[in-house]
Amino acid sequence: MTNIKSTLKDILQANTTPDVFTWIEEGRPLNSVFMLLPRKTGKAALSITQEQSEAINTAIPGFSVDNWTVDHLGRAYLLAKLDSTHKDEYFRKIESLFMAAEMAEQVALYSSLPLLAHPELWVKRCAEGIRSNIGIVLEAIMYSNPYPSQNLEQAAWNQLVLKAFFTDKDINKIVGIDKLANKDLAYIISDYAHERWAAGRELNPQMWRLVGPFIDDKLFEDIKRLFDNGKLTDHRAGALAITTSNYAPAKALLNKYPELERAIANNELSWDDIAG
């Protein structure tokens, strides 16, 4: 964590004036500095080098500040350098920020979860954040944030993924999205798909990537529907899902679409080509 704090400090120093950086470092009460910081730093887009970006991702794989603003980074830096020696006091200080946070402050807090000490302390808070209806708060939890995949229990993780589909988020930005696929989630997605179909609504075809490894008799009916009633995108999604399955009837179904098999075998078709 020391290395990333140093990198964050360097980035913040390069994006603020000496007076402002000194003000941030002076050790005023956390709540006060956290609230007032945007007035001092402004809200300009962050200037960051490729080397700094790579250093952050090396220190915390999946974590990124590339699209942050200066005040966002300033708040994250305050949290990263906060003394965590006394666990209870540390928790109270950060929890008080969550309790009083307006929208931009919530974004800074949730996106900074990977920087906080004692990660077990923030599991409940993260799970509560998933229930938010504020888009940018959800994105702070979901995008380029490895904390959820590393710390949430499966039920909460599955809720996060379903909320991402429900709110049309880009699941490619969710750290651990494929690694943490599980059968319970596959069945949840299947139920969600049936609700959408019954209502005559479109589905995000990316969801089938999380179903493919768990195809069984029940889930195979959903995959067949993609081929029977779907558009070309659905055919492609179904084919890609089948490639991760060992279910023999699914493999036999894919054999009926040699052009899709060839495209996948030749790396001409991947999930990156499937619009979400």
From TrEMBL:
InterPro entries: EboA_dom. It comes from the Bacteria. NCBIfam families: EboA_domain (NF035938). This is EboA domain-containing protein. It comes from Mucilaginibacter ximonensis.
